[in-house]
């Protein structure tokens, strides 16, 4: 074939590696080298032995060490490679499509730290199909690309399916919710690992904070999904804060979980955000019983412990005398509690809304069994899909946002003057929601994580000499 008709490459070219989220790389073409190499640091294997993967970071622009792109790919091999200076290194090998001009073909790349090199990628002779000719005396035979692509939405578009490493913090390895999260995440190509919260411990250090687990330092996770039980809230949220310090995306932040678990604090958060809820009062002095009841209204009233679980510690006082007796009993136990208006028109029903990433993805109506005022799922209770009004959707999303939760179960009741929030749950169970809504809800969770972890456009550095504007 005549060289003029063949696909020509110069000794340096612009290429793109779309599946790695790299829209523009300036590479050196070296026919003297057999293999190709891509700059990578913080290289870390993950996944199963049957389908191993590797994750790594890379600086695509030599002059921009502040711009780091996280990449991941299946591992095709691991082999020893001898560099030009005679040093031999055991490297991970990946294969990924390479875009050059209007052509694309798969290329095999070894991963190594090229941080001191002018070119972040070296193309060896094995990377070229038969119809490609390298012209050593020329450069940039193919159309140029631009590093500006890292400052635009294009950087989002080129890496939609990057495999992620995700941790689920849970002590209930076999619970329905944990199993579903793992199952759906793995089906989407991610590595999802369940970590027992209480088996973790932390190193607090200004330069290198770490999380350890059973004697080993935990690897870097792209995201953490907290499933923290109420009994270990203090330690669980401390662990989440450690992940936040490291820079890991936490679906629900520690502050939001802590606030939602403290019922008094939770009501204060809702009140500050001007979100409708039943009128609520709190006090600690026994002599204030009458005034406490008067602040809320007349009987019937709900008297609720500040940390009830599954409806326990929630009492309906149908008369003022009954309310006084319950309040005095709780005070005798030195228990903290709330007194709350009973929304009679709810008629033993509430609605649980599952909010993910600022929108309601499912809603179920929970109906209490006959003779019971609490709609918490249990024997004799009924769960059906719920159709929400616009006001109810807005209330649920505002409540989740008030706590900063990416995933929340918001319980509300329908009252004569609009929806009222009863509780915001940072660790909602998924079984009743999936059964009632008849849908796959975990996919929404991973769509949110993928969107948040995916590379984002970065600001261009300020040019030297530019004036600050006020």
Automatic annotation (TrEMBL):
<dbReference type="InterPro" id="IPR013815">
    <property type="entry name" value="ATP_grasp_subdomain_1"/>
</dbReference>
<dbReference type="Pfam" id="PF08443">
    <property type="entry name" value="RimK"/>
</dbReference>
<dbReference type="InterPro" id="IPR004666">
    <property type="entry name" value="Rp_bS6_RimK/Lys_biosynth_LsyX"/>
</dbReference>
<dbReference type="GO" id="GO:0005737">
    <property type="term" value="C:cytoplasm"/>
</dbReference>
<dbReference type="GO" id="GO:0046872">
    <property type="term" value="F:metal ion binding"/>
</dbReference>
<dbReference type="Pfam" id="PF05618">
    <property type="entry name" value="Zn_protease"/>
</dbReference>
<keyword id="KW-0460">Magnesium</keyword>
<dbReference type="InterPro" id="IPR041107">
    <property type="entry name" value="Rimk_N"/>
</dbReference>
<keyword id="KW-0464">Manganese</keyword>
<keyword id="KW-0479">Metal-binding</keyword>
<dbReference type="GO" id="GO:0005524">
    <property type="term" value="F:ATP binding"/>
</dbReference>
<keyword id="KW-0067">ATP-binding</keyword>
<keyword id="KW-0436">Ligase</keyword>
<dbReference type="GO" id="GO:0009432">
    <property type="term" value="P:SOS response"/>
</dbReference>
<dbReference type="GO" id="GO:0006412">
    <property type="term" value="P:translation"/>
</dbReference>
<dbReference type="InterPro" id="IPR013651">
    <property type="entry name" value="ATP-grasp_RimK-type"/>
</dbReference>
<keyword id="KW-0648">Protein biosynthesis</keyword>
<dbReference type="InterPro" id="IPR021109">
    <property type="entry name" value="Peptidase_aspartic_dom_sf"/>
</dbReference>
<feature type="domain" description="ATP-grasp">
    <location>
        <begin position="267"/>
        <end position="450"/>
    </location>
</feature>
<dbReference type="InterPro" id="IPR008503">
    <property type="entry name" value="Asp_endopeptidase"/>
</dbReference>
<keyword id="KW-0547">Nucleotide-binding</keyword>
<dbReference type="GO" id="GO:0018169">
    <property type="term" value="F:ribosomal S6-glutamic acid ligase activity"/>
</dbReference>
<protein>
    <recommendedName>
        <fullName>Probable alpha-L-glutamate ligase</fullName>
    </recommendedName>
</protein>
<comment type="similarity">
    <text>In the C-terminal section; belongs to the RimK family.</text>
</comment>
<dbReference type="InterPro" id="IPR011761">
    <property type="entry name" value="ATP-grasp"/>
</dbReference>
<dbReference type="Pfam" id="PF18030">
    <property type="entry name" value="Rimk_N"/>
</dbReference>
